[in-house]
Design goal:
The chain has 394 residues and is mostly helical. It is built from 16 helices and two strands.
Length: 394
């Protein structure tokens, strides 16, 4: 116990009163070193911009880089609408791989140090409001008599609300929702292996190493069950993003760089294996293997540049808005984009390239409306409801 200066006086009864005076600088004990503040992640606005770039890549693919239902919107194959650019647009499907790398980075960043309940509430409140609104909107538009696309059956729509339509074999209302099924499985693996026991560098490294090994074994074993759980064709991109977050925390982390390198090597293999084919005059497009590798590499390098802080200068506020619009834009752009393309191109006679630009702008405006009137209102409510434990009644 530290003694402090005291003023000793005697009261009228003879008792001694010790008045403790405030301590002086000379009498204070040596102070402990200040506790370093808890690491806080500033918003990486360049990452928001990269999200929008990936979404626009996918939109370019859906509007002009493939055949299928979009030909009804154009009145002919996009190959005829874009004789040269359709080849470039066909690489846009790799925006999904870029999304997965971004997701690995973001989920590791947001899940680090967060309890399981909070992690679940954050993910559910982020995904569900805009997703539900997009389902209802697309279903309503496709039910209109002037729209020449099949409307969803009531039972299928109800199942789609759960996001479990893929494993249940139910028709998808949103064409892009297959990527959400991959995201959900990644969230589940990350929550079980990292968030629940508590995130730390060693555990994350082991998670990445074990998942990579499991994915390779699953590919060789050809087990449908393991394929669903481990998803070897998408795992490298998520793992690469997680590794890049470790790089963001410590750019000298050799293990983190090793995770990124191995993930890139395996990821480019899966991308080439699924998207490259021998040149064929009847094919819609003939992607080159080097072109595919280049786009996959772009995803890793872009996230790495953000992780290393090379893009801190890209700190414009509009990038935050772009990031907020990306998810609702991604949900509605494909199917409702077909409706917009037909209206602009066939009904109004607007040229092909101008139609693409107008359609993208229209979908961005719709995404803004969904963000403002659906996400901004429902996301906080849902997050609060899921974050707070139920009150116990006695």
């Amino acid at each position: 116990m530290i003694d402090t200066p005291a003023d000793t006086r005697e009261n009228p009864t003879g008792n001694v009163i010790r008045a403790v005076l405030p301590p002086t600088a000379d009498t204070l004990p040596p102070s402990d070193p200040p506790t370093p503040p808890k690491r806080r992640e500033s918003r990486l606005r360049a990452l928001d911009g990269l999200r929008l770039v990936a979404a626009l890549m996918v939109a370019a693919y859906h509007y002009g880089g493939r055949d299928g239902d979009v030909t009804k919107a154009w009145g002919s194959s996009p190959k005829h609408q874009f004789p040269t650019m359709h080849l470039l647009f066909s690489y846009g499907c790799l925006g999904v791989q870029v999304f997965f790398v971004i997701s690995g980075f973001v989920i590791c960043m947001s899940g680090w140090g967060r309890p399981l309940r909070s992690f679940f509430a954050s993910r559910a409140s982020r995904l569900l409001p805009a997703y539900w609104a997009a389902l209802l909107l697309v279903t309503a538009v496709f039910a209109l008599p002037m729209v020449a696309y099949k409307a969803a059956a009531p039972s299928d729509l109800l199942v789609n609300l759960t996001m479990m339509q893929m494993p249940l074999g139910v028709d998808r209302v949103l064409g892009v929702c297959w990527t959400l099924w991959a995201e959900i499985r990644f969230y589940a693996l990350f929550a079980l292996c990292i968030v629940l026991p508590g995130a730390n560098r060693r555990r994350v490294i082991m998670f990445c190493a074990c998942w990579t090994l499991a994915a390779v074994i699953t590919q060789g074993a050809k087990s449908p069950l393991l394929d669903i759980i481990v998803m070897p064709e998408y795992a490298p991109y998520f793992i690469g993003g997680v590794g890049l977050y470790l790089v963001h925390r410590d750019r000298k982390d050799v293990y983190a760089w090793g995770i990124v390198a191995v993930s890139w090597l395996i990821g480019q293999h899966y991308a080439v294996a699924s998207l490259w084919h021998s040149p064929n005059t009847t094919a819609f497009s003939n992607r080159s293997a080097w072109g595919i590798i280049l786009v996959v590499t772009f995803g890793y390098v872009a996230v790495a540049a953000i992780a290393l802080g090379w893009l801190h200068w890209a700190n414009w506020r509009w990038l935050t808005v772009a990031g907020a619009l990306t998810y609702p834009f991604y949900l509605v752009h494909e199917h409702l984009g077909w409706v917009a393309i037909k209206a602009y191109h066939q009904t109004l006679g607007i040229p092909s390239y101008a139609t693409v630009i107008l359609t993208v702008v229209t979908m961005l405006v719709l995404a803004w409306l969904l963000n403002r009137f659906v996400e901004n209102r429902l996301t906080p409510v849902l997050r609060s409801a899921l974050s707070n434990p139920p009150s116990t009644r006695r």
